[in-house]
Design brief:
Layout: E1 2-7, H1 15-21, E2 26-31, H2 37-41, E3 53-56, H3 60-68, E4 74-78, H4 86-91, E5 99-103, H5 113-127, E6 133-137, H6 138-147, E7 155-158, E8 182-186, H7 195-202, E9 211-215, H8 221-230, E10 237-241, H9 245-253, E11 257-260, H10 269-275, E12 280-284, H11 290-296, E13 299-302, H12 307-319, H13 326-354, H14 360-364
Parallel strand pairs: 1-2, 1-4, 2-3, 4-5, 5-6, 6-7, 8-9, 8-11, 9-10, 11-12, 12-13
Length: 367
């Protein structure tokens, strides 16, 4: 099978999927650029895509030629006509091969959200007959694409991926204090990530022992530093700034909880990083990956935009804290790796072979 992934950059959140598929199939990755400057500044490295071949789309002619010469290939698009040049390819889709879209739910934040659903209704009218399947990020994505007019039988629940760690690392973890929970935030210090609200909630946990580490940088850094100083949190809260992914994963490995308090996250790949290491996750219903946290019962999902809910969850988790054993963490890490990484890749591959004749059992795995 020949598969072409059409992306704006070499996505770190699809590289595992691409790498696994490229072990058995001819995979071409057509991108506008290698990796964005923003990602590099956050500590990301060039993703490993294994045996896949990269084609850079310098102009529309290159893209059109690639499409014309590979009309039998399965096309896997990031988003629906989302990027210049690739948009031209999308408009020229034919029905000789399977066309897949991998997409997040449209954001429900800001004034733009009033126009987002009408835009996607229009996309559904224009493209729903050209698209064989939408692989939507989490339950959040499934609900969104159903709500804007795409046929239900074309929508599959999907996810982003991250690389799987060496699980023998879990047996070597040691904590300075077995009774003090360690919480971690990894992400940009921007309004959408809601780090300010999280710090204000954490300030209310005055009578509870904990450590809270923040990895990331951004325009809210000074405000974060001021809150830490204002509330005298420096003995419990530490701000580490940006660091490369390997360093960040070392911090994550030595944590009890990852907290992702975003106002909106189409997926939230750091949740994958946490669960694949047996780390519990605290996030909310406006995060695409929250569905996996709920299914694995490894952490807590609170109601989006609710300070009271977040505070209640943190109080409950920290007051009753008991650190899982290495064996318990290992069990959850293996469960995630098998069920939410390797198995999902296998089912994705089966659907590429079988679509549109997908059995109810296979469809249930995604919906």
């Amino acid at each position: 099978m020949k598969i072409i992934f059409w992306q704006n950059i070499i996505s770190p959140h699809q590289s595992f999927l691409i790498r696994e598929l490229a072990k058995k199939h001819e995979v071409i990755l057509a991108v506008l650029e290698e990796i964005s400057e923003e990602r590099l500044e956050q500590g990301w490295k060039k993703p490993d895509i294994g045996n896949a071949k990269v084609v850079f789309l310098q102009n529309q002619e290159v893209a059109d030629s690639l499409q014309k010469n590979n009309r039998d290939a399965v096309g896997v698009f990031s988003g629906i006509a989302s990027y210049k040049i690739i948009r031209g390819v999308f408009k020229g889709l034919n029905k000789n091969a399977c066309t897949i879209v991998i997409a997040e739910a449209g954001s429900n934040l800001g004034w733009q959200s009033f126009f987002r659903k009408p835009l996607y209704y229009l996309k559904a009218l224009l493209y729903k007959n050209k698209i064989d399947a939408i692989f939507a990020m989490g339950n959040l994505g499934v609900e969104f694409y159903r709500s804007v007019g795409f046929p239900k039988d074309k929508i599959f629940r999907f996810q982003y991926f991250t690389g799987l760690p060496q699980l023998d690392e879990l047996a070597e973890i040691t904590f300075e204090n077995e009774n003090v929970p360690v919480m971690l935030f990894i992400g940009q210090l921007i309004d959408r990530k809601d780090i300010i609200k999280l710090l204000n909630v954490i300030n209310n946990l005055k009578d509870i022992d904990y450590e809270f580490k923040i990895i990331g940088d951004g325009p809210l850094r000074e405000e974060v530093e001021n809150i830490i100083s204002k509330y005298s949190l420096a003995n419990k809260v530490t701000l580490h700034g940006n660091m490369d992914n390997l360093q960040a994963m070392d911090f994550l490995l030595n944590s009890d909880y990852l907290i992702l308090p975003s106002k909106f996250d189409g997926w939230g790949a750091v949740v994958n990083e946490a669960l694949s290491r047996g780390v519990k996750v605290i996030t909310n219903t406006n995060c695409g990956a929250s569905c996996i946290v709920e299914e694995m019962k490894w952490g807590t999902v609170y109601k989006r935009n609710s300070i009271m809910d977040l505070e209640k969850v943190l109080l409950g988790e920290l007051s009753a804290f008991k650190r899982p054993t290495a064996e318990e963490r290992m069990k959850k890490a293996i469960e995630f790796s098998n069920n939410y990484s390797l198995n999902i890749v296998n089912q994705f591959e089966k659907i590429l072979y079988a679509y549109p004749q997908v059995s109810p059992v296979e469809r249930k795995l995604f919906t």
